[in-house]
Amino acid sequence: MQQFLTTSSWSKNKGSREAAVSFSDTVAGVLNAVIAQSGSKLLNMSAVRTGEYGTYKRDYVYYDKAGYIAYRTDKADTLINAGAFMSVSDLLKQMMGGDVYAKRALASTILQAGGDAATLGQFGSFEINVLTGNLSTAADYASYLQNSAAINALIAAEPESAFSAGWIITFARAMELGLDRRGATDWVGGWNAFLDETADGKIDGKAFVPTNLSFELDPDSNERLFVFTDAEGALVGVPSNDNYPKESRHAA
Fold this sequence. Notes:
Helix 1 packs parallel to helix 2. The strands form three sheets. The chain has a three-stranded antiparallel sheet. The chain is built from seven helices and eight strands, in the order αββββαβαααααβββ. The longest helix has 22 residues. With 252 residues, it is α+β, with helices and mostly antiparallel strands.
């Protein structure tokens, strides 16, 4: 799995090397958690701005590539949230394939924060703990879709239970985040990524070819279906048009 790591540390004018490492490790941890949950492959890791963190006098600072202070604050959590917002905003654009619900949660978190990732420090209301909660909602929502019949039956049987209340909260938050709606991030990587990931659940070069693919309409819902057949015309898979979920993928 692709990962971000703290590669070096240094101190100047009695600055705290430990603090700088902790800031960098925290942001790297956020990026790695998003990658792990989504299962996405990054198109270009170097396109994600990670920067250098440190201290200067009584402030916490972010250094640009030239070594100049690009942002400073007297609050450690402000620096971390500012850096994380910039980094995850870049990360989202590079996430090819994987769990679309995790990517939609990340996209909505960035949008709802109201920041400007092009300008360091303009992170709006972004907080790492909010992102973590939204990713948790995405995981719960994906789990519901895979087990909806059983969960719906339990909710119907005991609508006033804590179990039911918990799912109602999850559904409400999922709708707020737009997890039920397709997003631009669903299609990062285009057809190449789709044909690759649908073949075996991974982006690994073992892909379907265009001649394996055809389109049909579901007679009941009129939903467009992607249908995959082998060289003899035998059906090998009809993945969800929305998320290509792992449980419905089949290798040719």
